[in-house]
């Protein structure tokens, strides 16, 4: 399912918050089972050209439930065009994934810096450097939330995207 930008929450100038999209599925979730190791897209968001400006900050808040087992579960966020990975996280003995993915435009529509892969919270400390990308937001982009399993199973376990929120904070 691909969502489109819904509304502006407050302002479009410096300091305003622009709501890009969300999925709140009320417990039904969108899941990827362990029947195979192929990547499955859980949700995607279409961002029209020019929506994100040169000094904006992008905030992505997914909430996932996963089975608490030793099997590796992988979750990521990437662009559909060019397949640039924005964020990825792998987990084993956990019951949920609640990453706070934060990216900043670097005074350009084609240069960003993001939290490191594998960090999970707003106050995370990481030995991994910040992630830099060159996603061109002067053209249409679709961001995909995806999941896959490290090892195939019987198809009885799922990685479930319970909800996600994507917004931008206008920069100076």
Short description:
The protein has strands at 2-4, 7-10, 17-24, 30-33, 40-47, 57-65, 73-79, 85-91, 96-97, 101-105, 112-114, 131-133, 141-149, 158-169. The protein is mainly beta and 172 residues long. A hairpin with a 6-residue loop joins strand 2 (7-10) and strand 3.
Structural class: mainly beta
Low-confidence stretches: 6-13
Shape: globular
Strand fraction equals over 45%
How many E-type strands? 14
Overall number of domains:
1
Provide the residue-averaged pLDDT: 82
- Rg: 16 Å
**Distance N to C terminus:** 33 Å
The number of helical segments is 0
Helix content: under 10%
The ordered H/E elements are EEEEEEEEEEEEEE
Question: What's the arrangement of secondary structure elements?
Answer:
Elements: E1 2-4, E2 7-10, E3 17-24, E4 30-33, E5 40-47, E6 57-65, E7 73-79, E8 85-91, E9 96-97, E10 101-105, E11 112-114, E12 131-133, E13 141-149, E14 158-169
Parallel strand pairs: 1-5
Antiparallel strand pairs: 2-3, 3-14, 4-14, 5-13, 6-9, 6-10, 6-14, 7-8, 7-13, 10-11, 11-12
Structure description:
The chain has one domain: Jelly Rolls (Sandwich), CATH 2.60.120. The termini are far apart. Strands 2, 3, 4, 6, 9, 10, 11, 12 and 14 form a nine-stranded antiparallel beta sheet that branches. A hairpin with a 5-residue loop joins strand 7 and strand 8. It is 0% helix and 49% strand.
